[in-house]
Amino acid sequence: MNVMTAARSPLVPDAPPRPGLRERKKIKTRQAIRGAAYALVEEQGYDATTIEQIAERAEVSPSTVFRYFPTKEDIVVTDEYDEPLLAALAARPADEPWTDSVRYVIRTAVRRAMTERPEITELRARLMLEAPAVRARMRETLTDTSRLLAEALAGRTGLDPDGLEVRVHATSLVGGLLEATMYWAEHGHREDYADLADRAVDVIEHGLPTAKS
């Protein structure tokens, strides 16, 4: 699902402190690299786009690109949403059902992405579908995301974050949201992305629906 800004966001209860000059420069460079990569991919396709071309378009060196993104795929699959999303989960009412908290935070994040950068959100989803290297890298990064979600779930429930049940639930949720993204891209982004994410959470919470006769 895109750098989080320092302005107050609906994803977090309070605006974070404004980053220092050095951090702002890093954010600007990261944004320039991502912007260059997305523009080149739109122009000539993912496979034809090279790190050297991205660096030239972003006006940085190839080594700078690699310092921010170890692989070309990381430019597409990584973002800065994990920490704000986890903070938003932690800020939900303690007596709110876990799945309701997840549903609220995911829907808010998707709505924001589709409002601020719909073309980039759609491009990322399409690349996950069409580029095997991007899809493979995304699945690799899901391990870290699942671990962070398991820790958040454990904090809410008091269960062991390394317990099998917590790990299964967290991994299932993350995998389900990835499949919702893939489904969205497969169907030409015609359906409401937030609704598809809701349906994925429904499956995790309630299991498969009854087949229609």
Report on this structure:
The protein is mainly α and 213 residues long. It is built from 10 helices and no strands. The chain has helices spanning 21-44, 51-58, 62-68, 72-77, 82-91, 98-116, 118-130, 132-157, 164-186, 193-206. Helix 2 crosses helix 3 (62-68), helix 6 crosses helix 7 and helix 9 (164-186) runs antiparallel to helix 10 (193-206). The protein starts with 20 loop residues before the first helix and ends in a 7-residue tail after the last helix. The relative contact order is 0.11. Residues 1-15 have low confidence and may be disordered.
Search tags:
globular, 213 residues, 10 helices, 0% strand, mainly alpha, disordered N terminus
Secondary-structure topology with pairs:
Layout: H1 21-44, H2 51-58, H3 62-68, H4 72-77, H5 82-91, H6 98-116, H7 118-130, H8 132-157, H9 164-186, H10 193-206
Helix pairs in contact: 1-2, 2-3, 5-8, 6-7, 6-10, 7-8, 7-9, 8-9, 9-10
Main sheet: strands, sense, barrel:
none
Number of helices: 10
- Total count of strands: 0
pLDDT under 50 segments (min length 5)?
A: 1-15
The fraction of residues in strands falls at under 5%
Residues in helices, as a percent range: over 70%
| Rounded Rg | 18 Å
Query: Whole-Å distance between the termini?
Result: 36 Å
Name the structural class: mainly alpha
The average pLDDT score comes to 87
What is the molecular shape?
Answer: globular
Order of helices and strands: HHHHHHHHHH
Question: What does this entry show, briefly?
Answer:
This protein has helices at 21-44, 51-58, 62-68, 72-77, 82-91, 98-116, 118-130, 132-157, 164-186, 193-206.
